[in-house]
Amino acid sequence: MVLDEIGLFAQVAQAGTLAAAARRLGVPKSTLSRAIARLEAKTRVPLLYRSSRSFTLTEEGRRFFESVAPHVAGLEEAAAHLGSGADQPEGTLRLSAPLASGDLLADPLARFNVRAPKVRLEIELSSRKVDLVRDGFDVTFRGTPALAGDALTAKKLTEGVLGLYAAPTYLARRGTPTDPRDLEGHDLVAHAPSLKASPLRPAPVHAAFITARTAVNEFGFLRSLLVAGAGVGVLPASHAVRELGDGRLVRVLPGWSHSIGRLYLVYPTARTLPRRVAVFRDFIVESFAVATG
After folding, report:
1. Domain ends where: 28, 57, 82?
2. Model confidence over 59-88: pLDDT tens digits?
3. What is the pTM of this model?
4. What is the torsion angle, in degrees rounded to the nearest 10, for the CA atoms of residue 165, residue 105, residue 262 and residue 241?
5. Are 111 and 85 in contact (CB under 8 A)?
6. Are 74 and 43 within one domain?
7. Number of independent structural domains in the chain
8. 105 shares a domain with 134
């Protein structure tokens, strides 16, 4: 029926590409292409300009989408309310996150697997900035709230804090610094994102970090080096929770800390989201709210 074809057209127009809409709906691209062709035949109006890999809306298609989008959203919301108390969320949830956030997200993602056993997670840890629609992701974690117009919403989850850490074995061998100036006599391990700049700039503790003995561009490996006794190093507090708890690391110069980047959850701005996305959003926001007190 034409109502189904209108709904599929709205999904394609909102997603921006046939491929993205097909991934979101879980149907072949050919199904969407044929549905839009049928709608164009019935209305006798071209809705899309097609190329081999993409499309753009015609002027008529743009006006039609703007006209039907609110009604399609209303129908989807009504259907969602009918099933809101029914089965658990299911389907594939694709998410992207920065490389450095892996440790921070591991625990809540593991608990979400228990909370939503019918949802399959596909997780990409990458330094690239993904386009939620173009790259076919449902949600992404970012270090900045920068958004594309009104299409996306960013929810702040946490703000990172750097601290100094070392293994008890290292401190037993080299002594525990009690003053920033003591760092000059220690092996220092710093985080250097590019490895072309100074290992830590600015140096909030002491200039000795500018000539740190070891520079690493990934916090997970930096932590492993510290646990292995490589020296005194800089870690986000969130990356040292387990190691502090089991005694593999201790805090050095605990009076010093340094605020670093924030972490945001970014998801589509829509009156209704797929149930798996809405449940994941609410779960992650609640998890970080509890963790940060």
Report:
1. 82
2. 888 888 788 777 766 666 665 555 554 567
3. 0.51
4. -20
5. no
6. yes
7. 3
8. yes
